[in-house]
């Protein structure tokens, strides 16, 4: 990134750090001793955060957390609104409840596999148990009692819960514990930009509270699964009155504890207007500890001797998964109503799905959790049962949901085919535009068509809301139909269709068979990719690219989601820029590519106003408006980006029409295109110069922000300047374009040359914006995006 093989870490650690060229390490000291007017070139720094998202092999475990990450995104997709504070809080509460349902769903799936399929059905069936020798000890002796088998199998979902708690606690200590820069409280009026609030990147208290609640909910789910089986037996056979009473008392206590967890999750969420250092220590201890005590009591209760108790049929999986599916559907409908109300209060024509992006993504998170749950249950059932057909199998609800997958895939394939056909037809329309961008150049028709095709494919990114909307709508309808079919018939689709017309019966059998195969295959692929990511650094980098976008946001809805790297990266950049300007009185250019441009904007918002007024932004391949502005309008909408444009010294944005990710930021102009990079690295043109630059800070004298789309490729054919064919760069290689150097030079020209000497014995405060200071050559940067 620094275009030099010899780099030195200036500050930071092995996870995220700021680097310089080896020759620039002592640039400030050299600048103070150099003759005045020496004209030393600005010094570049690079901020690298890739180890926050990929890192070591344990990152492969994050694949388990994918549904949690997706539902956390839904929290931040709320429409922009002013004055509707109750509706905003209700939006957050509904998303947190959806996240809680995902935790219960995942643990319930583990209970289905361990308790129902393995301990209850297989170990209770002689043919299945004999086919799996490792289950032999459960068929005779002390462990042969159904309740004791269930108590032993409860170790599996309990271990999963402990693993989730451990991952969340470890990442919480490393990510959410980074202290924001003190004294960054925004002045009056800056509250309209949420990302500028001092507590936005410090969610330590909320994550700790939600972690305690979700851990308790998971343990209560395991306790309820064990208790329900034993209590059903005690009520059904007229067993000892004492056991019947204990079972009813335990079930009531579990219900009260569950309602308590729901109440904790519904409590007011994040505190962004101030840095909240509280931790609710008592709540963090009481909830998990109380749930653990109830789980132990449930295990003891189930293990009590019950002569004549035999395991047969299914446990209460249908009721549990049906209730979870129904609750998730109602939450999504309520969330859609709230989001629509917020959107109507302040309509944004660029907002994805007219403000319904959050409900759509929350629904997809629930569907993803259902697919993972159904996949593991179906695969384990097939493995245990083999070809004998002696097991009752997984719950009917999961079988119906699996049968809906082929229909969903068919709809998705049709949609992609339609979009692909439109892109193919639009290639012809792009050809004249390509020729206009390269007037008078020699060209090859084949190459021209190739450039036009790249442009057409890059434009498909703008169709993402349509794809998400259609998939979410079809998923909702199919999920509702699957739930109704399972509850109405109580049988699998193929069995329920018996006696129907032959075509319908055949379609049901095909859908059930293909769905079962697909969901099992999906589970196998998921595990395979996780193992590969554990061993292969390149596979972890692929995961890191996904996490770059998905984990940019704080964990506001689900504590078991992958950690938010921006809660480390944004304070890093803010501290670096603020302390450098405080020590030197200088000004800087903050340069960011792709996801780095998003970090650069977030860090600029966190700066005190006098420091922010000395920062110039150079973004390229940036998804700030094209992706973040459309999908997260409350935080990156037109108003927020417009304020940032007014508050920084200058902002320029570069983009290409061949870039599928980046685009224009549409501030001060409407003609641009661009994209973003999710590699986890930020090329940091952090160039800095002293105060007193041409143009008053924050005057937006460099408007508009967006430059006209860069030519890509630089040349269509062979010319004197480009004797060899120029590559189509798309999202990368912005710094190789001559326009990049031109724009950077223009930004530096606004900043006077030289680096001011550090102040002696002053109050450490920055000078007023625009106040000239004594110059000295050289101007190192304060950070990079």
Describe what this molecule looks like in 3D.
This protein is mainly alpha-helical. Strand 1 (7-12) and strand 2 form a beta hairpin. The protein is 55% helix and 5% strand. The chain has helices at residues 27-33, 66-76, 85-122, 126-131, 146-153, 155-176, 204-236, 241-266, 281-303, 317-345, 357-385, 396-437, 445-458, 464-489, 493-496, 502-535, 537-550, 566-584, 595-606, 609-612, 624-631, 633-636, 638-647, 738-749; strands spanning 7-12, 17-21, 45-48, 586-593, 615-620, 650-654, 681-682, 687-690. Among the domains are: 42-53 and 566-714 and 727-749, no CATH class; 83-182 and 193-343, no CATH class.
Radius of gyration: 30 Å
Individual helix count? 24
Q: In what range is the share of β-strand residues?
A: 5-15%
Q: Major β-sheet, in short?
A: 4 strands, antiparallel
The share of residues in helices is 55-70%
The mean pLDDT is: 82
Distance between the ends: 12 Å
Which parts are unreliable, with pLDDT below 50 for 5 consecutive residues or more? 186-191, 670-700, 754-785
Instruction: Based on Cα principal axes, name the global outline.
Output: globular
Number of strands: 8
Name the strands of the widest sheet in spatial order: 1-2-3-7
Secondary structural class: mainly alpha
Region (Disordered): 678-705, 750-785
InterPro entries: AB_hydrolase_fold
Keywords: Membrane, Transmembrane, Transmembrane helix
Biased composition (Pro residues): 766-785
